[in-house]
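pasting for ref
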Amino acid sequence: MPKILVTGGAGYIGSITIHHLMRRGFEVVVVDDLSRGHRENVNPSQLTVARLQDTDAVTKVLAGVDAVVHFAAYIAVGESVRKPELYFSNNVGGTVSLFEAMARAGVNKLVFSSTAAVYGNPERVPIPEDARFDPVSPYGESKAMVEKILESLDRNHSIAGSAFRYVALRYFNACGAEPDAGLGERHEPETHLIPLLFRAAVSGKPIQIFGSDYPTPDGTCTRDYIHVGDLAAAHVAALDHLLAGGASHCFNVGTGKGYTVMEVLRATEQVTGLKVPFEMALRRDGDAAELVADAAKLRSTLAWKPERSDLHAILTDAWNYFQKHPA
């Protein structure tokens, strides 16, 4: 089976994608600087601890690799607004260093972890892949920049005598867990809605709901929630496509159905049997009102479909993981 480098593989989505890749029989190696990931998420024999900006170190890890799955990025929208230079340095600068290492090592296939944040406040919902980029946060801007670089590499670059090819997967809201594998969300600080709802339910300390005046059914933000297992399956499908000689593509990865923050809160109460205390707060900088995917292209091109992304199934898996990892 092919050998795959996973950058950021000690993180939430990276570690779960590795679980899916290894279940398929792929050989996997990992580069992670452990600034946001967790060492215990990765088999020590697979892990090289290094920053992507260390081009020489990454080049060595790429020896014998057939393709790269690139997760290593900072992801907190609010932090990106406060520290834009950090996001451009890591998310763009680190990725350019990775591309240089790939060129040196003769690796010309990449699956890129992108985001629906590249769209900003979309003109229509569900959002198609040809919607214009208009990010409203440095995080979204950093991902849009990398996608532009990928387009240029696809048009102009040849590595080891073959064209550079990529698949960019624009995630909507990744959530859920693989509790049987002991893998789930453990960000610190935590910024994702579902773990924060669980924390509020267990601690009794109210969660802040940012914004109650958006143009949505109840005034809170609407998002498309995709089970992390379905998201990992999309990465495997993208790799299969590239390894078979497929062309470059950009795909939305979502369900096509949106839920408001308050709808997710009420569903959390049903799954956990606990009340979730909350308090309304002002809108958060960089948040779009509504992000829902048109994922028809991914379904038709790669024969992918979400199989585990019912909201109650997502919450049940996430709650099972959370109860085993309350810290």
